Amino acid sequence: VLSCVPGRGNMFPPDFAWGAATAAHQIEGGWQADGKGPSIWDTFCHQEKGRVFGEQNGDVSCNSYELWEKDLECIQQLGLTHYRLSLSWARLLPDGTTRHVNQKGVQYYNKVIDDLLSCNVSPMITLYHFDLPQALQDQGGWKSQEIVPLFDSYARFCFQTFGDRVKLWITINEPYVCAKLGHEDGIHAPGLKEAGISAYLVGHNMLRAHATAWHSYDSFYRPKQKGAVSLAINSDWFEPLDPGCKEDIAATERDLAFTLGWFAWPVFVTGDYPETMRSAIDSQSEKLGYGGSSRLPSFSKDDPTVLGTADFFALNYYTSRKVKPGGDSGQMLGIKSDRNAEEVLDPSWPISGVSWLAVVPSGLRKLLKYIKDTLNNPAVYITENGFSQVGPLQMEDVERCEFYKDTIFEVGKAIEEDGVDVRGYFAWSLLDNFEWADGFSVRFGLFHVDFSDAKRSRTIYRSGQEYAKTIVKYKRAICVQ
Ligand code: GBH
């Protein structure tokens, strides 16, 4: 067996997954094509002005529904070993249920998967990346526990239909973002602003849905299909603003508990939410007169077992924050006041295109080490990481080149020096795409997409060329017996 030895020029194991990622609603377009049902993001964009930059929407986007073969050319040009994509639930099951299957949708994803495999690229498939079928939102969406068996049926349908060829699955992408941005801040679909209540409920139902689908895979599909299933958890890396200050240290712990811990503790550590999170919510409830009702639900004996329902850790990492107490007056019900942690940027961190994305590659290494130490040393795939461009187009995107070079070097050190079991790295994103509320104004692609051109022509950025070289370099590096 070949293995790469530290100091011999390769920090990455020979079977390391080198990938790029996308999501259905961000690239496919074809929002009504061939029988697809509407999703909550279609509704969110169409229903009301002022929600998305420039009143843009994902109706056409990169038009990957019609131009998949162009995407495949991009994938091959990068020399990826893996490609992470998501399935549009409403393209496969227009009303969200298996009562009606849209065969055109099945054909589309069958072709994508078969084409990838024939080019020696392994698919990693996300079942849910923010785009709930509108028909299910109309029945209560993620706030309703009814969603759990519906998601499980959809998941089983996908395992049954595609699992002979797909070996890496993500059930839900970033439950934190769906819960908080979708149901507390209202800046993502379904656009609800129900601070301090709904996000916790949504997160709870997402954990139930994930766990139920994992158990289905484990019982009925794993024996034959032999794949692996997880959920993708997003987290920044957090550090105390003043490392010598007790209050800042405690605020940092709360912030980690409310971000990484919210979903990682139940699945990887205890089967329940972090104690820090529950006690912070309970004491705020007490203070604001919600004493009787627990806003953070509990898992009961009727729920699926959540602990242990991940075959690897899927991490979406973008940035880091310094933390101190505060961020809110503490008088308003909401996650911010529950968390009591104010996040600030270190002035030494450069900002990429979007204001939230401070460039801190070293934070990834620290977060990986933290995951190893606190979550029982799981195998880790970095399922998203990337850098955005805003404003005038630069095909020579030198800052993004530096970003990827520095970040991948940090991943290598996490493997080599910290012994973190990192199995793969997926750049976000293959293509410039529909960046949710920021529309097309924020470009995360390794390929530029010309959205003013009917053909949506794709052109590789300098960063795409450099990423391709990096992959070749690490795949060719000297490995010894
Ligand atoms: C990912 O989330 C998504 O999975 C992906 O679809 C998306 O394209 C990619 O990020 C790039 O944005 O607007 O100030 O409230 C990453 C985690 C959490 C990062 C929410 C942005 C919003 C900050 N995201 N955060 S703000």
Distance between the termini: 6 Å
Major sheet:
8 strands, parallel, barrel
Q: Average pLDDT value?
A: 96
Helical segment tally?
15
Descriptive account of the structure:
The protein has 481 residues and is of the alpha/beta class. Helices cover 40% and strands 14% of the residues. The chain contains 15 helices and 15 strands. An 8-stranded parallel barrel has the order 1-2-3-4-5-7-10-12, surrounded by 6 helices. A hairpin with an 8-residue loop joins strand 14 and strand 15. Helix 3 runs parallel beside helix 5. The chain is globular. The relative contact order is 0.15. The mean pLDDT is 96. The structure holds ligand GBH. Ligand GBH binds next to loops.
Question: What's the topology here?
Answer:
Blueprint: E1 17-21, H1 24-27, H2 40-47, H3 64-78, E2 82-86, H4 89-92, H5 103-118, E3 122-128, H6 134-137, H7 147-162, E4 168-173, H8 175-183, H9 198-225, E5 228-234, E6 237-240, H10 246-269, H11 275-287, E7 313-316, E8 320-324, H12 335-339, E9 342-344, H13 361-374, E10 380-384, E11 389-390, H14 398-416, E12 422-428, E13 442-443, E14 447-449, E15 458-460, H15 462-476
Parallel strand pairs: 1-2, 1-12, 2-3, 3-4, 4-5, 5-7, 6-8, 7-10, 10-12
Antiparallel strand pairs: 8-9, 11-13, 14-15
The structure holds ligand GBH.
Ligand GBH binds at residues 23, 173-174, 177, 234, 316, 318, 356, 384, 428, 435, 444.
